UniProtKB/TrEMBL annotation:
This is DNA repair protein RadA. Keywords: ATP-binding, DNA damage, DNA repair, DNA-binding, Hydrolase, Metal-binding, Nucleotide-binding, Stress response, Zinc, Zinc-finger. SMART domains: AAA. The middle region has homology to RecA with ATPase motifs including the RadA KNRFG motif, while the C-terminus is homologous to Lon protease. NCBIfam families: sms (TIGR00416). Plays a role in repairing double-strand DNA breaks, probably involving stabilizing or processing branched DNA or blocked replication forks. DNA-dependent ATPase involved in processing of recombination intermediates, plays a role in repairing DNA breaks. Stimulates the branch migration of RecA-mediated strand transfer reactions, allowing the 3' invading strand to extend heteroduplex DNA faster. Binds ssDNA in the presence of ADP but not other nucleotides, has ATPase activity that is stimulated by ssDNA and various branched DNA structures, but inhibited by SSB. Does not have RecA's homology-searching function. The keyword Cell cycle does not apply.
Amino acid sequence: MAKDLSFTCSECGAAYSKWSGQCDACQSWNTISENKALASGPKGKSLGALRGKPIPLIDLDTHEPEPPRTQAGVAELDRVLGGGLVKASALLVGGDPGIGKSTLLLQAAARFARNGLKVIYISGEESTAQVQMRARRLGLEKSPVRLAAETNLRDILTTLEAEKPDLAIIDSIQTMWADHVDSAPGSVSQVRASAHELTTFAKRNGMSVVMVGHVTKDGSIAGPRVVEHMVDTVLYFEGERGHQFRILRAVKNRFGPADEIGVFEMTGKGLAEVKNPSALFLSERGAPAPGSVVFAGIEGTRPMLCEIQALVAPSPHSQPRRSVVGWDGGRLAMILAVLESRCGVPFTGLDVYLNVAGGLRISEPAADLAVAAALVSAREDAAVPSDAVIFGEISLSGALRPVVQTENRLKEAEKLGFTSAITPQQAKQVAVKGINLRQAHDLAAFVEDVFGAR
């Protein structure tokens, strides 16, 4: 019988039945490699007490307590983890090179060690002397964290078996090498096999493991997406090189809410948690200017205010530019089309630039109305009132739809000194003391009310 072969692109994870030089999905060259089967299946006792035998759900103890958690003592990190680190869990942390992943995890390791956990930090990219140098710079040289520099997975598992730590940090999973897999370190097969071995080892031995993963050009963790499915929690560490803000975002969490974020500030002595992100994102906002709008958003369970900036200028080219930073470019095109079709505000022949200040990335549709207000403000050269926050979703018909957690957004705005808010009409009346609420039922009425009759 012929041997079944499968190949996977290391950049985007696309699967193929035969090898080719270029990936059709992401257009990358020489990134397709063969998936090698593991030399043997999992050994040792099963993860389940009955070795895979099914248990009736009705027979399970309804009073089973939640898995124990250990808090790091850093409120932003504990928030993203869902209340703390869960025993025997596997976490994957991704981010751009140089964004601060190793710094964050070294600080977290020191915190967990001070709280009673036995922690081992294993680096495959740096020597122990380099890690110690960073620890001294961060003021962590006296922390009871054990360091190791190794890339051979067999030696790492042997060490973990002997040391029996509560938490192991692997920096990074792309540098690990499993000797039973016939491919180079960093390949799809090696990443998948190493992640599988570490995850199953952690589950069997009651140890938590944190794996660092590099990201591809499109921002996703390099290697097959199956690695993300193996682990319990996937965190992305985001930020712009030109800004001191760093955002730790949970995109998957089996033990807490997904889409929760923690905000940090990069300082000379490492990462410092930001307890009031709204004030920080608005701290550099100057006098009211055309194209500047404050949006009251929700990130996970936390209300957060940020500034949305727009610039509209005549285009010297036949095809006007549409440039977006921190928001979805396709949604910007939709807002421009609705403004032109439903409100008679043309953007033909105009370059449009949109930016979310502070390096924050927004994904919720509630930002539609704030973006539309910034665009019209920039086009008409008319500033939006500086004491107003704006939020709401726009439909293709031009109608405005209410969004969730309106009251929490308004309370956050009132806490930071804003006195008015412009929102869609609410089915249930919401009132917050100190906030003058202005409501509109469609986008045309909003434009006429804020910027005058057109």
